[in-house]
Amino acid sequence: MSSSSRVAVEVAIAILYDPIDRSRLFMQLRDNIPNILYPGHWALFGGHIEAGETPEIALVREIQEEIGYAVPDYVKFGIFADETAKRHVYAVPLTVAIAHLTLTEGWDMGWVTQVDLEAGELYSAKAQEKRPIGPMHQKILLAFLHQV
Fold first, then answer.
1. Separation of alpha carbons 135 and 2, rounded Å
2. Nearest alpha carbon to residue 144 among 117, 126, 109, 110
3. DSSP result, 74-139
4. How far is CA 62 from its chain centroid?
5. How far apart are CA 18 and CA 25, in angstroms?
């Protein structure tokens, strides 16, 4: 199959935000594995929509699998598509302390601010260095912050 005839994958991803301060956003540092999209980059939590799933079901499942968080509520923020993926994006309040989350996928997790997003990088204690923010995820989060 040629790349021009391939259909981009569909994913459901969450803008996890602090409900008290919606300008604080929670991100995942992706594993530094070369064959994944945005290896070693900060990105949004979420993942592939499986056969028979709606984007909403995939969102809830992925967040539960990745950090053990039962999504209490969500609002569709939009669809962001490019040649690699069609991203169904949802705004989700993070209503528990980080200490109650268990990272099961990825390298690190942490809060990001608009300053970090504009700089395009965020420090990771686990990586012990600043790591880049995935360009599409940066675009999505900056769009979200402009609506807050």
1. 25
2. 117
3. -EEEEEEE-SSEEEEEEEEE--S-GGG----SSSEEEEE-HHHHHHTEEEETTTTEEEEBPHHHHH
4. 10
5. 6
User: What's the pTM?
Assistant: 0.91
Q: Report CA Rg, the chain.
A: 15
Condensed to tens digits (0 to 9), the pLDDT of residues 83-131 reads 889 999 999 999 999 999 999 999 999 999 999 999 999 999 999 999 9
Q: What is the pLDDT of residue 37?
A: 75
Domain definitions of the chain by residue range: 9-147
Fold of the domain built from segment(s) 9-147:
Nucleoside Triphosphate Pyrophosphohydrolase (3.90.79)
Provide the residue count of the chain: 148
CA atoms 107, 104, 114, 98: torsion sign: negative
Q: Which of 141, 9, 22 is nearest to 84 (CA)?
A: 9
